[in-house]
Give the backbone structure.
Amino acid sequence: MGFFFSDDNNLFLGIDIGDSSLKMVELRKKGRQIFLSNYAFSENVSEINFTKIENLKYLASVINKVKVDANILSQRATVSLPTFSVFSSIININNFDRKSLALTVSEEAKKVIPLPLEEMTIDWRVVPNKDGKVPTRGNLRVFLTGSPKKLVRRYIEIFKEAKLSLLSLETETFSLVRSLVGNDKSTVMIVEIGANSTDLSIVSESIPVLNRSLAVCSSTITKILAEKMNLDFVQAEQFKIDMNSALGESDNDGEKKLPKIIIETIEPIVTEIKYMLEFFYSQNKQQVEKIILSGGGALLLGLPEYLSKTLDINVIIGDPWSRIRYVEELEPVLKEVGPKLAVAIGLALREIS
């Protein structure tokens, strides 16, 4: 999709390397406004698992091919780290000393990170109080993340081979918070229903404080449909797209209802959401205000309505384009691909914000 701008200045590229897909979003900032410059995605390329492939040269060539084919111009990129590969935790520090805070965080990290710290790249940030201010005395909460150095080195090698400048690596969850939550400080849950996993995060004050990952995902639904309807995977995937008219029933209000086969398949996701909502409330005496859906699985017609009624909470499909300007004629297409590109959009926004 090559359009809009040809000037290579002030371009910001986010690249989301998923389990079975590669997604890119290129943004451009002009004044205080952010414009969509370009986007591209390639799914199921030779059915290769992008996050596990050992052939770094091949992965670099795929990145370059998608980039060139879409006429993406930026030579600098912010790239996602898969959520499952990054450890994260909130740690509490009592009576902290600002001068030795870094050392204290390091000592606390040894207690919660399951791997030796010398094998990890550690990052941390102080969690502000509810008034948005960082404490200067007393107790402190710190959000800690750790990424295996081996994985980080691998990404560096991939982008060196692709001849692209790797500006930074970021966990998918933070990118989703940036694109779907923005400056909203309310407590929300993000449910990312991807091709090979479903990631759930409760976000408070823009910090993901509780995270879970499930194997039940968009591909699970496709496989169940293939099995029940004697279809191959590709046929079942297409059927899933078309099933709104083929299988969907309407309730008394005329709204589309999820087919029973889908409801049964996503039951583990619903159960985990309930558990996380109850656990968060028991620990914080605070309700999650809404659930934001993302990922390709979020586009199942009737899913937000079903979850909203089942969980008794407001459920919406996230809009990662809310802060971005684009050609009006593209709105129907961008609305459809938005949930799939939410991570890449958040990555591109990182260097702009």
Observations:
- The chain has three domains: 11-83+158-181+318-350, 85-150, 213-316.
- The longest strand covers residues 33-43.
- The CA atoms of residues 87 and 114 lie 9 Å apart.
